[in-house]
Specification:
Layout (H helix, E strand, L loop, with lengths): L4 H11 L3 E5 L3 H10 L3 E4 L1 H9 L9 H14 L4 E4 L8 H13 L4 E5 L18 H14 L6 E6 L1 H5 L1 H13 L4 E4 L5 H10 L5 E3 L11 H6 L4 E4 L2 H20 L12 H7 L2 H16 L1
Parallel strand pairs: 1-2, 1-8, 2-3, 3-4, 4-5, 5-6, 7-8
Length: about 290
């Protein structure tokens, strides 16, 4: 019997230290990440908002928006997928439970759920508001209770560092693990030694979010391993590069009247075909047509 996505995610955390988890904004990028050798991938809530909806990451995205992208990724890529579910997509334990069950059904391996209020913000933006520790603990309990697969990973994200300080963030992380969280995601960490404090405070793997242009320095995997970090997240690196490249191409075509000056920045047709296994599909189509003719 094949392992569940959640178990494969847990195995990846155990086998690679720290586990690099790279953001894949769509199914094509999931395949590229696998080709590059990554053992786990990530779907960012901010990425779904900006990439799929063209909206800011301010709690506007709904569960179905995220599930659509989850299904598209898991349909073609077998790497375990960690999914950002914001605050659980609703105000009650019933909403959190529905989110967890849906994620498992659509093939996700893990989720992280945070302690911000419903009108949430990017974790690296100012003026965040968080719920009480008890409300966050209730979210974790609801998520754990709703699991239809015990290996599915429930990760607790806390944004408390920027709002209430380090001690509050540490207390919340410990309380979430006590409530059943499998892993901890302390957001917007500013110093390497802080990760060590979280690792010593909670008996659970710690995730470091190494996002560009945010509050956290771009620590290396070696530095993070020395700080007892178990997972390193690069949520939107490829997405940012993709957006910049697309903008450059659009401007070049518009200004130059041709794409000739940017053609060397593009993936070729044959490279695309190879990445999505185009020829395998075409050969099956050719065989079908040949069978009909005979």
């Amino acid at each position: 019997m094949s392992k569940s996505p959640g178990q494969r995610f847990r195995d990846a955390v155990a086998e690679e230290h720290p586990l690099q988890v790279v953001g894949a904004i769509n199914a094509n990028h999931a395949l590229l990440a696998k080709r590059a050798g990554f053992k786990a991938i990530y779907l960012s809530g901010g990425g779904v908002a900006a990439g799929s909806l063209g909206l800011p990451d301010l709690g506007i995205t709904g569960l179905d928006d995220v599930l659509t992208d989850v299904r598209r990724i898991t349909d073609v890529c077998d790497l375990p997928l960690l999914v950002d579910v914001d605050t659980g997509f609703g105000s009650s334990a019933f909403n959190v439970a529905r989110t967890v069950k849906s994620m498992i059904k659509f093939g996700a391996a893990a989720i992280h759920i945070e302690d911000q209020v419903g009108a949430k913000r990017c974790g690296h933006r100012p003026n965040k508001e968080i719920v009480t520790q008890q409300e966050m603990v209730d979210r974790i309990k609801a998520a754990v209770d709703a699991r239809t697969d015990d290996s599915f990973v429930i990760m607790a994200r806390t944004d408390a560092l920027a709002v209430e300080g380090l001690e509050s963030a540490l207390d919340r992380a410990a309380a979430c693990v006590e409530a059943g969280a499998d892993m901890v995601f302390p957001e917007a960490i500013t110093e390497l030694d802080m990760y060590k404090l979280f690792a010593s405070k909670v008996n659970a793997p710690i995730l470091a979010n190494i996002t560009e242009f945010g509050a956290t320095p771009l620590f290396t995997t070696d530095e993070l391993a020395g700080a007892d970090v178990s997972l390193v997240l690069y949520p939107l690196s490829a997405f940012r590069a993709m957006n910049k490249a697309a903008e450059n191409v659009y401007n070049a075509i518009r200004n130059d009247g041709t794409q000739q000056n940017v053609i060397d920045t593009m993936q070729t047709r044959m490279e695309l075909y190879e990445r999505i296994n185009y020829h395998d599909f075409e050969q099956k189509l050719d065989a079908l047509f040949a069978q009909k003719k005979s």
